[in-house]
Amino acid sequence: MHVLILGGTTEARQLAGLLHGTPGLELTSSLAGRVASPRLPPGEVRVGGFGGADGLAAWLRKHSVDVLVDATHPFAGTIGSHAVRAAAVTRVPLLVLRRPGWVPVAGDVWHEAGSLEAAAALLPGLGRRVFLTTGRMGLAAFAGLDDLWFLVRSVDAPEPPYPARLEVLLDRGPFDLDGERELLRRHHVDIVVTKDSGGDATAPKLTAAREAGLPVVVVRRPPVPQGVPLAADPGAAARWVTRRLGAIGTPDVTG
Questions:
Q1: 80 against 192, higher pLDDT
Q2: How many CA atoms lie within 13 A of 53 on its CB side?
């Protein structure tokens, strides 16, 4: 019985850890290859794209995949739609593993945006020194804001087009609250931009911004496709997978 995890997230690695070693279960994790030195999960790993929904469907058939888990980033919309289409045509059961989104609390000054372009349009009226934590792939949306200064944090160096006034900080989470406080202070940040990625690894920036009274532009995540089962954590996903497969001798997945 073969499980394919579309991964690259912390939750995907945790799910692979829970399922790895289950008797009678073959496990493959697929990474997009956008990060130069990814953290590899246990089990078999493939790196690179599939060639669209049709290519993914062909891979599912060729490798006799019994269950497909989309545990990609909440904003990885393209691979998510490909997974839905490939699962439908191959009749392979699909589960979406998504960490819950962030929820504002008292003291937060959030401005929601439906896209990176919408977030960029808000910035001139909110601040001048921007801490941009939306990743390196969407910087073109901010490229025309020449009057603003940007601090961009990403795992790998971005490629143009990107804002003219730019400082790049190469770093990988998780980040702690003291470090985020110091970063905002040292760079005189007056606005933060983030995607609603959810999870704990990068959430301290929201607390630091709240403490400093800074506005935060939050890009809303795309919805999970209708009709697709959803798990909010790796433990729930592992239980769903093992129930589907009827696996025997499963690991402890009560978390």
A1: 192
A2: 13
